[in-house]
Design brief:
Structural class: mainly alpha
Number of domains: 1
Order of helices and strands: HHEHHHHHEHHHH
Number of strands: 2
Radius of gyration: 20 Å
Distance between the termini: 91 Å
Strand content: under 5%
Shape: globular
């Protein structure tokens, strides 16, 4: 057995546990938040009348665990490549300072949003949809557990971003960790089924350039529009944002109007 294969096999179980654990932790945390705050506001922010069934949730979890396995296989390849010096993943700040850390992480997020928008939109092509993306859209009313509910081909496409990016951009190991945490948290928020973002994330507000739960939920509900992951930029630029997004977001985050007390004579 070659040294490379031995390195791969010895590293893979730990990486698989991390990839699986971050999915379970993030989706479980979001599900717990929804349960805890359902009666004190999130029920009013529910985006679809339909409710996901237990069968839907089981399908989402099983598909997501399979995707985590695919991600771990790709992540282990990155680990081996870094050990061999084929890509640069460094620790400490001797090689590059904190400013590079922040800038490289920001570039990675913007690049990932671009990668996600165009691959996602491509997978909606009628000749590609069934093979790549149909599994994810079985969740018409998604739950946080749908975050990684992909077919194997789509999981490979989604998981390929990190290897492709680090092949060209040296990254601090901690920046990669922060990236995957942001990615999974934004993903489970997008599939929460109730709007979890405050009003400041609405169109025209100071954080309105970010996607929200409403934004991605409309994608699942309609099967089109709103292809971005983190930001609205590509959807706005390419004219693929749902025309009713602003109205629906503002309607769901608007504070409940108090009912006027009945005047008794």
């Amino acid at each position: 057995m070659s040294e490379l294969l031995q390195t791969y096999i010895s590293a893979w179980p730990g990486i698989w546990l991390v990839d699986t654990g971050r999915y379970l932790l993030a989706a479980g945390l979001m599900a717990a938040i929804l349960a805890l705050f359902w009666r004190v506001g999130l029920a009013r922010r529910k985006l679809q009348a339909r409710r996901a069934t237990s069968r839907d949730v089981r399908r989402e979890i099983l598909a997501s665990l399979r995707s985590a396995l695919v991600f771990s296989l790709l992540g282990t390849a990155v680990f081996v490549a870094a050990r061999q010096g084929w890509v640069t993943l460094y620790k400490g700040f001797d090689r590059a300072g904190p400013l590079y850390f922040v800038l490289s992480l920001a570039v990675m997020l913007v690049a990932h949003d671009t990668y996600f928008y165009w691959t996602h939109r491509a997978m909606h092509h009628r000749r590609l949809f069934r093979f790549f993306h149909r599994t994810h859209h079985l969740s018409r009313t998604p739950t946080p557990w749908a975050a990684y509910s992909f077919s194997v081909p789509e999981a490979i496409v989604q998981g390929a971003f990190v290897p492709l990016f680090v092949a060209f951009v040296p990254m601090h190991a901690l920046a990669i960790f922060v990236f995957v945490v942001i990615q999974i948290m934004r993903n489970v928020m997008g599939h929460a089924g109730s709007e979890v973002h405050p009003a400041g994330f609405g169109p025209g507000r100071w954080l309105g350039w970010n996607n929200t739960t409403t934004h991605h939920d409309l994608h699942h509900e309609t099967g089109r529009y709103n292809y971005g992951l983190y930001f609205r930029w590509w959807d706005k630029f390419m004219g693929t944002e749902h025309p009713d997004y602003r109205r629906k977001f503002e309607a769901v985050v608007a504070p409940a109007q108090p009912v006027a007390a009945e005047v008794r004579s």
